[in-house]
Amino acid sequence: MKQKSILYFLSLVSILAIISCSQGDQDYDDYTSRVEYSENIRSAEFLEDSLITVLTWNIKLAFGHRGNPWSDDIGGRHDLVDSLAQLIRSYDPHVVLLQEVPYDRENTIIKRVLDSIAYKLNFNYAFGGHGFNSDGSYPTRAQWGNAILSKFEIASIENREVFNLNDVWSRRSVLKAALRFKQNEILDSYSLHYSTNARSDAEFRTQVSKTRSFYEESQNPVILGGDFNYSNSIDTILNLINCSPPEYSDIDRIYSSEDFITINPYSRIEHSLEFSDHFAGIVTLKIKG
Q1: How confident is the model at residue 133 (pLDDT cuts 50, 70, 90)?
Q2: If DSSP states are collapsed to H, E and C, what string results for 138-151?
Q3: Which one of 25, 79, 97, 242 is CB 3.0 to 4.6 Å from 56, fit for a cystine?
């Protein structure tokens, strides 16, 4: 009787293991993978003068201000994605930095939210995933990441990881898109969304230091922005120009290299909060020379 019980237990464990593996294979082949891609859909356009308008926005996985991505709510609705695109269009930016962009998410109607926004705007676009994110549910709902939209041609992209706690759910990357803003000149743009899972201030600042190492490889003018998830000053680590007014201390910001002069400092777009839990922000820069 005892032998039969042991055999039954082992058989049950084997069956559960097979089911578990099958579920994992069926949902995603590799939870450590990160999606990245870009596409140029707009005819080549160059900067007509020296002014560049940049907008940044954490779009909360396209679930709107009140939607909950980790519930039975449905995101990526056509009306909401239309509203995201319309708001961006109304400010006529040259470059858009987006965060919390969903990719093929299980509980969104539009599966490629970035692609949909880009085609509505007729902007070139790039996506860089952090990896899969989860609230503990299984199967995980999908990947998420940063994105860059632009009127300029995207010459190349790189998606570099800056945070990893040896946990597939706690990974963050910074997306770089090299933008051909003049016939023979490149502007390097970076979109980021830092993690709040850092266990210490020093660990958080590691993300900033790795980001600095990333953009300091550039030989071109630099624009960097996104959701820093940190309201205290990190300017000394970044060693870039903060395009915000002195009194501004929110977590969403835009920085630039010394190649630019800030013409209109970073400002919130107040009504953007209707479509996300973050304000969009915008800045106008003038390239020197």
Answers
A1: confident
A2: CCCCEEEEEEEEEC
A3: 97
d(CA 148, CA 127): 7
* pTM assigned to the model: 0.89
CB atoms within 10 A of CB 202: 9
Sign of CA dihedral 22, 26, 29, 31: negative
First to last CA, the chain: 88
pLDDT digits (tens, 9 = 90+) for 257-273: 999 999 999 999 999 99
- Which helix H or strand E contains 276, and what residues bound it? none
Cα 270 to Cα 161: distance, rounded to the nearest angstrom: 31
Q: What does the alpha-carbon distance between residue 55 and residue 97 come to, in Å, rounded to a whole number?
A: 6
SS (H, E, C) 204-268: HHHHHHHHHHHHCCCCCCEEEEEECCCCCCCHHHHCCEECCCCCCCCCEEEEECCCEEEEEEEEE
Q: How far is CA 142 from CA 76, 111, 134, 250, in A?
A: 13, 10, 8, 28
Domain ranges of the chain: 36-287
Fold of 36-287: Deoxyribonuclease I; Chain A (3.60.10)
H helices within the chain, ranges in order?
2-27, 78-91, 113-121, 201-215, 235-238
